[in-house]
Amino acid sequence: MTALANSPVFWIWLLVGLGALYVLPTMIAVIRNVENIALVVFLNCSPIAWPAALVVACMMPRKETW
Fold first, then answer.
1. Cβ atoms of 61 and 33 closer than 8 Å
2. Virtual CA dihedral for 64, 52, 43, 24, nearest 10 degrees?
3. At what angle are helices 24-32 and 50-59 packed, to 10 degrees?
4. I want to staple 57 with a disulfide (CB 3.0 to 4.6 A). Which of 21, 28, 38, 61 is the partner?
5. Across the chain, what does the average pLDDT equal?
6. 16 neighbors 36 (Cβ within 8 angstroms)
7. What share of residues in the chain are helix, strand, coil (percent, to 5)?
């Protein structure tokens, strides 16, 4: 276990994974093309509001295309 904790590769992958998880609500909102992406990004800026950003990104209606 100490070898894993001392491995720089482990820490790099851990930080990359956590960073990807942190921006997940914004990625979901962009992929779904929701109406108010700015709200999701604003909520995503606060670690406390991250769960709310995830819920809003998944539940917000999509933009209508003409």
1. no
2. -70
3. 10
4. 28
5. 91
6. no
7. 70, 5, 25
